[in-house]
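Subject: Interface between my chains keeps coming out wrong

I've been trying for a while to get a sensible model of this assembly. When I model each chain on its own everything looks fine, but I need the whole thing in one frame so I can look at the contacts. Pasting all components below, labels as-is. Any help appreciated, I'm running out of ideas.
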Amino acid sequence: MGLIQRRIESAGISTVSISILRRVTEKVKPPRALFLRWPFGHPLGEPGNLAQQFTVLHDALQFLYTSSPGEVLDLPYPWRRYEYSMPASWNLRPTSIESEPKAQ
Amino acid sequence: MNNSFRQRITVLFARAFTRWPTLGRLWSKVAPIKVSADIPWIPMLKSLSDSSVCLITTGGLHMKADVPFNVDDPQGDPTFRLIPSTATQGELKITHNYYDHADADRDFNIIFPLERMRELKAAGVLYGVTPTHYSFMGHIDGPHVARLEDEILPVLLERIRSEQPDFVFLTPS
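Reply #2:
Try treating it as a single job with all components included. I did that and got this:
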């Protein structure tokens, strides 16, 4: 999958991915990846757990703006026994853009 | 060894790998993976509320009406399937023997967060979701790797570009 990601970024489009095998990701070197030490087949968590799925999505989308080239971010969430809440803010933007109102 | 026997063995391994991720991590230590030198890099310049996403999964997901992935080829299936942004749980199916997808069968969002992205768009968090998304099976080997790189990815890139996403989100299985 890292190969596909690298090709898309090389074609001029920003990419971010979830990794479930850190060692493979470290070798393939995709531009941005977030590592979760979770079972295969569950990159966003458990079925129906919206708070968990949105938490991973939020962290991934935020990482689009905060990552440096080739960075693999370790997410802190254990597979079981963790209480998720919905992300508080989705106001994600490049640091160079201040939060001025959008031109209409 | 006939194909159905080999498939049963593959499914058993897949269940073991899913249940005990340590097995997968042990494999990843010895897997013959080429180490890349450079890192392609395109910074995200737009805010999320001005950006559109395209999704890609390697979880073997496809529309039920579409041709399933070829799980009989021991070197995998390098082709991809199109998934429209309007796809619903009932229209999708997973054909993949290399991981236990019982949970993803119940909620495809855990490998392909299309509904979650649609919800973010509806909430104004995200500007858009491209009309088309893509699914692979992953786990390709032998001559299929070159076929993927030389024949299939150029077609994929052309299709992705035509719908102008601001970023692509990729999920493994």
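Reply #3:
Confirming on my end. Residues 78 and 149 of chain B are 9 Å apart (CA to CA).
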